[in-house]
Amino acid sequence: MKRRRGDEVELICESEGYPLATMTWRDRSLRNIKSNDTTIRTPDQLFQVTSKITVKSSDKNNYTCALVEEGEVPKGPSARFDIPDETDLPAINSKCNTLSIALGTSLTVAMIIAAAIFGYRRWRGNFSAALT
């Protein structure tokens, strides 16, 4: 699955094997969906089929792609995509996270340096007092 522009996502099914098979896509209501398919022949003389559809992530639906061998009904391996469940990943604002990490690291380093200076001065004061 790939995010596209706006609220669109591209669903992708791939298969490799012999004999040549096609992919069918259906939605939850078992309606056929037109797909964009490509087929290439591999060096091993297998068929590699890639099938793609674009759907709106805001539509609550599920989509299934299935292999079909020459005019038969879908059978064998299939994949199911649940929309929008699979697209509800939290958005990460990397600028905010990077800034927080940099600021936190800087403050931690500054506190360690301040503690080291304070400890050194205190130790040196106790050491000077012991000499006199």
From TrEMBL:
Range of residues in the leader sequence: none
InterPro entries, sorted: BTN3A2-like_Ig-C (IPR053896), Ig-like_dom (IPR007110), Ig-like_dom_sf (IPR036179), Ig-like_fold (IPR013783)
Keyword annotations from UniProtKB, A to Z: Immunoglobulin domain, Membrane, Transmembrane, Transmembrane helix
Record localization: Membrane
Main subcellular location: membrane
GO cellular component assignments: membrane
Pfam name, any one: C2-set_3
Protein name per Swiss-Prot or TrEMBL: Ig-like domain-containing protein
Organism of origin: Coregonus suidteri
